[in-house]
Specification:
By secondary structure, the protein is of the alpha+beta class. The chain has 17 helices and 27 strands. A seven-stranded mixed β-sheet has the order 5-4-8-2-1-11-13. Strands 21, 22, 23, 24, 25 and 26 form a six-stranded antiparallel β-sheet that branches. Strands 15-16-17-19-18 form a five-stranded mixed β-sheet, with helices on one face. Helix 5 crosses helix 9, helix 6 packs across helix 9 and helix 9 packs across helix 13. The protein is globular. The N and C termini lie far apart (71 Å).
């Protein structure tokens, strides 16, 4: 009996988008349970990947068909009393291309194994064999040789995506004895000198603060696409990034490439190594509920960009543009009045990463990032800039990750208090698990760094004066969100309403122009609500609603701000 699970993967008839899998499993019991993961790390929502399985068949060692009965949506039960091994054959529909999916066409085979490889309740190694065109190269952290490799267990396999393609190009750099490979798939005119220099800078800055890197080598697997795309998924020894359109990767999208790459690299420590207790180890069969999203995603969002500043890849102005985007997302979301970031973390499993019910929840990325900024400043002020949030993450790494222990949010709070010598209880009660406004703590943190938050009314009349965000729908305008207490809200408008006319004037993609024209008068909107035409007259309210928020450096820094700026952003101040 083989001590491993043997997988054969082929991609004939790629235009059908089905990948063929044949897997042999050892069996020493009367029955065997085969599982497909219900979710994937990096996306804390149910994925239900079994919906892509077709033609699931099971055979014994003599090639006789065995019954396979599903006991839940992604578990199969097979009676194995009379066989020492079984062979499972199935096809997986691979028609979606993002950083966490599996995809097949005539130009590439791209697999995130957590989507489509089966596992058992016992731990086995995996032997993989790929049947791919002879001119295709393999980009992966897995040790493929002649299209074959052995993986010690399912956890590593699930965490090791691969791209097979004839259009792969690779550049490599080294930091502290670790090799970092940057792969581009389907990208022409790669500016290697620029990429490798910038990647090396932020990599070196991150490793310096932790003093070690958890993996021997690391692979950036970058899928550049001909259409708009932006997505990244973390793994211990690699990351997959999707970005597009291709022609702009080294234009306006280059800062996005740097941002997502620095973010995903930091995840090697934060969540792939420093892991919440609820996810240590991962349970791929069910939800892994945790309130600590403000740590594993929020701090990563904050420090991913900050390391670009500290390493000199970003200027202060470039960094502040990214910080301003987080502020804008925060203030545009009325869910901050209703649901804490801790509760929203728990509920990623409820409604995923979609906006969900209007005003119900917040983002673990955005709110977590802003709380990390405030926490970083509080630590620096309490320790006279000896320590920042990097020291807290380093202690989490050595006290928990290195020892194989998962942390709780209480552990995180305790380390904050140990480092700073001050209590964070009130901070957690009010801002992590409460819904108090962030304005005051954000202003104080920015002021400490010589920064200021500026607010001006949105340039859009609909947003600033009526409190509704809209998107063009042909010549009409569809409402995306409504600010509580705004004229749009008080006037009875609803999300998804389509605005057809203002004061009986038919729209031609010019809603704001008509609203400005009738600024001093009554504004009656004709809307289409699920096929029903309704007129709504909006009340006048003497205030602004959606505001544009930006962060700027103050003109003159005082002595304390100069010192803070130096230690926080590694910025030399004359």
């Amino acid at each position: 009996m083989s001590a491993s699970i043997q997988y054969r993967i082929s991609c004939v008839n790629a235009q059908q988008r089905y990948i063929q899998f044949s897997a042999t499993f050892p069996s020493s019991q009367d029955h065997l349970s085969l599982h497909l993961a219900s979710w994937r790390p990096g996306r804390y929502e149910l994925g239900n990947f079994a919906k892509n399985i077709k033609g699931f068949r099971v055979f014994d060692e003599h090639n006789n068909v065995l019954d396979a009965e599903k006991s839940n949506k992604d578990t199969w039960q097979i009676q194995t009393a009379n066989t020492s091994q079984i062979r499972v054959e199935y096809a997986y529909f691979a028609n979606e291309l993002n950083a966490g999916s599996t995809y097949l066409d005539d130009q590439q085979l791209y697999i995130n194994p957590v989507n489509c490889f089966l596992f058992t309740d016992e731990s086995f190694s995996y032997e993989l064999e790929l049947t791919i065109p002879s001119n295709w190269e393999i980009a992966s952290s897995l040790p493929f040789e002649n299209n074959r490799c052995v993986v010690e267990n399912f956890d590593r396999l699930a965490d090791s995506p691969l791209i097979c393609s004839a259009q792969l190009e690779k550049g490599t750099y080294e930091v502290n004895g670790h090799l970092f490979h940057v792969w581009f798939n389907n990208q022409k005119f790669i500016q290697w000198e620029k990429v490798l220099v910038d990647f090396e800078k932020f990599t070196k800055a991150q490793i310096t603060d932790f003093s070690e890197f958890p993996a021997k080598e690391f692979h950036f697997l970058i899928q550049t696409l001909p259409y708009a795309a932006y997505h990244g998924v973390e793994h211990l020894e690699s990351t997959v990034i999707t970005l597009g359109p291709n022609y702009d990767v080294f234009g306006s999208l280059y800062k996005e490439l740097l941002g997502v790459s620095s973010h995903e690299l930091y995840h090697v420590w934060n969540v792939k190594s420093i892991r919440p207790a609820e996810m240590n180890p991962y349970d791929f069969k069910a939800e892994n509920y945790s309130v600590s999203g403000f740590v594993y995603e929020g701090i990563t969002t904050y420090l991913g960009d900050l390391y670009l500043l500290r390493s000199g890849v970003f200027s202060l102005e470039q960094y502040l543009l990214e910080l301003s985007k987080q502020l804008q997302k925060h203030f545009d979301n009325p869910g901050r009045f209703n649901y804490s970031v801790g509760a929203s973390s728990f509920d990623t499993w409820l409604d995923g990463y979609t906006p969900g019910a209007p005003g119900r929840k917040v983002s673990i990325y955005t709110e977590g990032c802003l709380l990390a900024l405030v926490t970083d400043v509080k630590l620096r002020e309490a320790t006279n800039h000896k320590y920042g949030i990097q020291e807290v993450m380093k202690r989490l790494y050595f006290d928990f990750a290195v020892k194989g222990i998962g942390y709780t949010w209480q552990d995180y709070q305790q380390i904050l208090e140990n480092v700073s010598g001050t209590s964070f209880q009130d901070f957690f009660d009010r801002f992590v698990f409460g819904t108090e406004p962030y304005e005051s703590i954000l202003v104080e943190a920015c002021e400490s760094l010589g920064l200021e938050i500026k607010q001006v009314p949105s340039a859009s009349y609909a947003e600033a004066k009526l409190g509704m965000k809209i998107v063009a729908k042909g010549t009409d305008a569809q409402i995306l969100s409504i600010y509580p207490g705004s004229p749009a809200d008080l006037g009875g408008l609803s999300v998804n309403d389509e605005i057809l006319a203002v004061n009986q004037m038919r729209l031609q993609g010019n809603l704001d122009a008509w609203l400005n024209f009738y600024d001093a008068g009554i504004k009656t909107l004709l809307i289409n609500r699920n096929g029903r035409l309704i007129e709504k007259t909006l009340p006048e309210v003497n205030r602004y609603f959606y505001l544009t928020h930006t962060v700027h450096s103050v003109e003159t820094l005082n002595q304390h701000q100069r010192k803070a700026r130096k230690f926080w952003g590694n910025l030399a101040i004359d």
